[in-house]
Amino acid sequence: MKKLYFIVGSQDLYGEQTLKEVARDGREMAEFLNGKLCDLAQVVLMPTVRNADEAEDVFLKVAADKECVGVIVWMHTFSPAKMWIRGLQTLKKPMLHLHTQANEKLPYKTIDMDFMNLNQSAHGDREFGFICTRLNVKRQIVVGYYRHNDVIEKIRSFAEVAVALDFSKRLRVAMFGSNMRDVAVTDGDRVESEIKYGWNVNYYGIGDLVEIADSVTDADIDAKIKEYKTKYEIATGDTAAVREQAKYQIAAERFIDRERVSAFTDNFQDLHGLKQLPGLAVQDIMSRGIGFGAEGDYKTAALMAVLCKMAEKRKGATAFTEDYTYDLTAGSEMELASHMLEVSPVFAASRPKIEVHPLGIGGKEPAARLVFDSIEGDAIAVSMVDMGTHFRLICAKIKLVKQPEKMPKLPVARIMWKLVPDFKTGAAAWIYAGGAHHAVVSTALNVDDIRLFASLTDTELVIIDENTRV
Ligand code: MN
Questions:
Q1: How far is the CA of 369 from the centre of ligand 1 (A)?
Q2: Calpha distance 118→343 (Å, rounded)
Q3: Is 233 exposed, middle or buried (0-12, 13-18, 19+ CB in 10 A)?
Q4: Does residue 366 contact residue 241 with C-beta atoms inside 8 Å?
Q5: Angle, CA of 179, 181 and 182, to the nearest 5°
Q6: Could you list which residues have their CB under 5 Å from ion ligand 1?
Q7: Distance (Å) from CA 343 to ligand 1 centroid
Q8: Residue 411 burial (CB < 10 Å; 0-12/13-18/19+)?
Q9: Which of 321, 316, 285 is closest to 303 using CA atoms?
Q10: Residue 257 Cα to ligand 1 middle (Å)
Q11: What is the whole-number distance in angstroms between the Cα of residue 181 and the centre of ligand 1?
């Protein structure tokens, strides 16, 4: 079970009785927060920190505990901040500075000096905040009474990002084949990706997958087809083509388990030994939250896996998408996102159909794929690009919309959306920022989640929202 350490700061100045009350309030608060967060991470109360040695000890424990994904820190009383320097200098995990109080209301009739000395986070959290800012500690500050719903929501979001960052640190990505020939935006510095985000990205020959596929039995494929039937409508007579995709999926899943990878890429230029481009296989795997990037796009594959982890406990859809074409009707411009095949069924508005059609490019046999129209609603599109000196995230608000007319001749799944603040501003801003034609689209996450992820990983972030002007 992942853990969040809850660290309460104080000092010896106020005497034994005050420290007892600090410990009691800390316990009550930790228990309450644990009740609200325990599906994400266990909230573990640490002993009250009174001096520099104890501060150092607690942060060394944070560093040493692999299950600890981050810390929540709160100053119950004043806690002179020089005592936090040594400890904070060792902190490499996400921090939430919770600016709260044990009491919601001021007890106007009874308040005395003792009460004020005990409950002085307005005083102590400013001192602590200063030293964090001076030391450039990346953290989220959440303000408000800890039992209020909006505060709990923010703490939960922090926990989700912290758990996702912990996952990111150990994320393994497999590239079947390399980056698509000559394509710039999908490429990147894999060493830097591992240093910065933990992504261990390795190349495999497609033959590694073909070898496993050759060992898949008819009975294995029967079981997979049965599984498809529970989720999808089989709208083709070409069962051989569907069984071929089932075989690829079983092989890919065995590979994923064996190599402990949580994201992968392929490249349609390098499919030697496969009769079809993996379509249905990749689509169904993506719906499990396994990251995918087409054309060797390891950054989008890894980002998708991390964002799916972040959104694990939320409602909504999160997956890889590709920008394709527009409806440029003045005033009601819309974008059509799709791909050759790989659109995740998490975006399906109704039961997806398995169909088999030829592909215009790639020179392979007609491939089985899922075809569907998309859900509607507010979403974000997130793209990561390598600027040479650093990575940049571009996060745009978008609105998924119903396609205005049927597209009976388009044999692939599709998503349509409107850009924010308007089509021309949104598209120009994205292109000026260097945003890719690949993105992770999510209806579960919002700009604040990406802002926190960017801040905690010290990644440059361009936000495109209602307030954007080019
Ligand atoms: Mn592409």
A1: 17
A2: 56
A3: middle
A4: yes
A5: 105
A6: 295, 322
A7: 12
A8: middle
A9: 321
A10: 26
A11: 12
> Any residues with CB less than 8 A from the CB of 229 and at least 6 apart, and which?
none
Fold of the domain spanning 3-169 = Rossmann fold (3.40.50)
Question: In a 3-state reduction of DSSP, which class is residue 260?
Answer: coil
Q: Which residue has the tokens 């640190």?
A: 169
Per-residue pLDDT of 348-407, as tens digits, reads 999 999 999 998 877 889 999 999 999 999 999 999 999 999 999 999 999 999 999 999
Distance 355 CA to ligand 1 centre (A): 22
Strand partners, 172: 200
- Taking the centre of ligand 1 as the mean of its atom positions, its distance from the CA of residue 253, in whole angstroms, is 23
**From ligand 1's centre to the CA of 374, what distance in Å?**
19
Query: In the block, which residue shows the tokens 């998490």?
Result: 346
* Class for the domain spanning 172-464: alpha beta
- Inter-CA distances, 259 with 173, 175, 221, 445, Å: 9, 12, 22, 29
Counting beta carbons within 10 angstroms of the beta carbon of residue 86, is it exposed (0 to 12), middle (13 to 18) or buried (19 or more)? middle
- Angle (nearest 5°) at CA 48 between 7 and 59: 45
Phi, psi of 61 (to 5 degrees): -65, -40
- Ligand 1 centroid to Cα of residue 399, in Å, is 21
Cα(114) to centroid of ligand 1, in Å?
64
**H/E stretch holding 394:** strand 391-401
Every domain range in the chain assigned CATH 3.40.50.10940: 3-169
Taking the centre of ligand 1 as the mean of its atom positions, its distance from the CA of residue 185, in whole angstroms, is 9
- Name the pTM for this structure: 0.97
Query: How many A from CA of 142 to the centre of ligand 1?
Result: 39
Please give the distance, rounded to the nearest whole angstrom, from the Cα atom of residue 351 to the centre of ligand 1: 26
| pLDDT tens-digit series, residues 224-273 | 999 999 999 999 999 999 999 999 999 999 999 999 999 999 999 999 99
Q: How far is the CA of 295 from the centre of ligand 1 (A)?
A: 6
Query: How many angstroms does the Cα of residue 151 sit away from the middle of ligand 1?
Result: 40
| pLDDT, tens digit, 9 for 90 and up, residues 113-169 | 999 999 999 999 999 999 999 999 999 999 999 999 999 999 999 999 999 999 999
For CATH 3.20.14, the residue range(s) in the chain are 172-464
* Residue for token pair 């350490």: 5
